[in-house]
Amino acid sequence: MAEKRDYYEVLGVERGADDDTIKKAYRRLAKKYHPDLHPGDKEAENMFKEINEAYEVLSDHDKRSRYDQFGHAGVDPNAQGGFGAGGFDFSNMGMGGFGDIFESFFGGGGGRRGGPMRGDDVQYGVNISFEEAAFGCKKEIDIKRIEVCSDCEGTGAKPGSQVNTCTVCGGTGQVRVQQRTPFGTFASSRPCDNCGGRGQVIKEPCHTCKGKGRVRRSKKIEVSIPAGIDSGQTISMRGQGSAGAKGGPPGDLLITIGIRPHPIFERQGPDVILEFPITIVQASLGAELEVPTLDGHVKYNMPAGTQDGTVFRLRGKGIPYIRSKGRGDEFVKVNVEIPKNLTERQKELLREFDRTGGGSYEKNKNFLDKLKDLANKGAKQSRKSKDARE
Ligand SMILES: [Zn+2]
Ligand SMILES: [Zn+2]
Fold it and tell me: Staple partner for 236: which of 4, 157, 174, 310, CB 3.0–4.6 Å?
């Protein structure tokens, strides 16, 4: 149940890599793992396949942007209808409209009639909390998928009943066809019609699967959700989808993540945004604030004269980067709350404050500062446009 590797990781390039970098990385790796250079080496062959698959997606602008947005599910050739084609809308998952878990089957499969068929992919959505997304978690999900029938072990025959070897293909499931062409005689094989490619003919079909050899079952699967995952991203679990038919490989399990909103934090990629209320006294005199973060409260010394809407940054207090080292930041925006329902005594103190010149002096000072800033900016801009002309 190997997880499908990230395409950028496969090619060893940054997420924002340009076309040229991707091409160079692909050429270097394709040369290194080319099957001709490693005859019989299964691992090299798989690497080569993986590299080609990654390059096929990342070298195509359309596929790449879908991959960036939806992960492997966005470019899965078996995901019929898929994303963006009206298949699913995850946009309001955070609102709890779906419940915690929903599921669906993709069509997919295809394959030659009668021959081995790849199993269907199974698509799942899981809603997790803000913290679970930030730090990773394990979730047990209950999926429904097509499995090999355990009663007949996939043969489709009633246990103990007679199963005869197909007389047409001699049990191989394949019949050889010779074709004469002007270029010579070619031999090819196709699935046997008599036994449907099974190689065996069943007298009494299995009750459980009605002779199909496969049944729809519920299965509990534990999913490791990596720290730093974002809403809409998909985890692919290779081979955990529905069983294939007639010796075909199983499909994949594709788990798309939704994140429930946090009561106070908001997320922007790896960064956490927090709006933090302060009083006019704290803003004016400065204060040691106890600011909530994902790791608990931290102390922050806010300077005197902090203006409403000021944003300060707590480095490394954001979300861990997915499958990588380091973390984003927390941005704290202070909201200065203007007091309401003042007592007579408080009002008197404020009037006193005003009489001492406090309010108006500050106001005028700020106003003059802003004017000065504007004048400076104007001067810089006209210099810039003059440079551009020259
Ligand atoms: Zn069965
Ligand atoms: Zn046959």
Answer: 4
